Amino acid sequence: MKALLVDARSPLSTPPEPLFRDRMTTPLADPVDGLAEIVRQVRGERSLQRVVLSIPGLVDQANGVVIRSTNIPSLDGCHLGERLGGLLGVPVDVVNDGHAAAVAEATWGAGAGSDDSFVLALGTGIAGAHVVDGTVVPGAHGSAGELGHITVEPDGALCSCGRRGCLETIIGAPALRTAWNSAGGEGGPRSLLAAFGAGEARAQGIVFHAASALAEALLTLCALVDPGRIVVGGGLAQAPHALVTLAEGLVGERATFHRVPPIVPATLGGWAGANGCVLLGLQAG
Amino acid sequence: MKALLVDARSPLSTPPEPLFRDRMTTPLADPVDGLAEIVRQVRGERSLQRVVLSIPGLVDQANGVVIRSTNIPSLDGCHLGERLGGLLGVPVDVVNDGHAAAVAEATWGAGAGSDDSFVLALGTGIAGAHVVDGTVVPGAHGSAGELGHITVEPDGALCSCGRRGCLETIIGAPALRTAWNSAGGEGGPRSLLAAFGAGEARAQGIVFHAASALAEALLTLCALVDPGRIVVGGGLAQAPHALVTLAEGLVGERATFHRVPPIVPATLGGWAGANGCVLLGLQAG
């Protein structure tokens, strides 16, 4: 877990200099009490105005409820905002971590200067969020932006979602690991991308296949959503950005009527989610 | 061309009773003067407050400019709002006809009661527009909603857009006609759908293929855009709604994590576009 503390009077224009910034151990046993204790430690003698928590999983942001947590099952169904707020005596907002990271990237990261960015994170899964004017476009049921589950290969591999050939079955970290190991490579996606960068022939086909699948999904995104910028982040999109660069080139080659926006790597790295919490907290005042 | 005249004091809650409603001949030779003459005929002795024109093609709505007209090439590049407004002495708005129809369907048609509808029109091409709170979500370059150009069959038939296997290459009216004629059927898509309704075996496969492709595109739409309702209109979606009913069933069967909204046939028919102009005119005051 990452913790960031900033001055509540910080301007919204740039990421504020943190008063505290460190990794903390997530309290798995008694998460609500544990989180309260962590906040008290971070706060120290300072007076606290607001807490914003980003959670991997499905969140009812309006009511501060964790519907389904990816990593802390004991939080499932927890009215976290209300309970933690009661313990701390300040408002507590609960947001999806992908949404928090997307808002930060769109506003302070690679999307800065555009009021319309689609931000995706390539990792085990593929999270996406369309951020317009600093706010995630949620969809009617809060589930828009699932770029990872666009069908790219209709008869492709079985996806965790139960369908076949989703983008995630080709470019998700487990899929890349499997393809790389099947080709005789050792290690996971980072090792694959390093081998690609070093010009290893057996890495080329796998990385081109992944970039091609990503390009197809991005063309669909352009046709349906027409974003002003596409920001690609997550563990698989880090420097030297081979996947992003390849996908950008393929989208440009394959586009016909599409209005293709700039496709750029994310810049905030692993702290995007925590920065998004800061931004949402400052927006809330 | 269709013309509708309504009382400018009509409420926005329901489609107003028209003072005039009829088809007119589009003036191809001198379109701007011709349109002005038609408006004068329709107006008669009444005082006119505003004209809203919907045009098939690419429109710069903010500036009233026809960028590329599908049917009247002499309008390409025309500052139609300014020129027609100058002739008539009233404000003239120029909108895309698909957008106008979508706004009307979402507000007064099959989308009534929901503040979030994706409206598509199945015809020669496939137009789509996401209407939220009565307004089309335009995308960063005004080109969102191109459901017809989602890739459904990666190595499929060549599309008018230059790519392969777009939804339009399977369910567009020319594609259905070709498939039907190749199977020995006579006539076009309406004849195909009539034969399907009558239980003709050779029509079954073609219509199921089309409905299946539509279902795949709608699942992608649900994953990326998450609309609150899907309204299917256009010539190929008319009663008895075989395509809409089949596609709705297939989306329900194939959905996994998707939040599937109601999928319903449009109700305003061929007058949706004209009704959308009325709605936009009343909104503008």
TrEMBL record, chains A, B:
Source organism superkingdom: Bacteria
Positions in coiled-coil regions: none
Similarity annotation: Belongs to the ROK (NagC/XylR) family.
Protein name in UniProt: ROK family protein
Organism: Microbacterium arabinogalactanolyticum
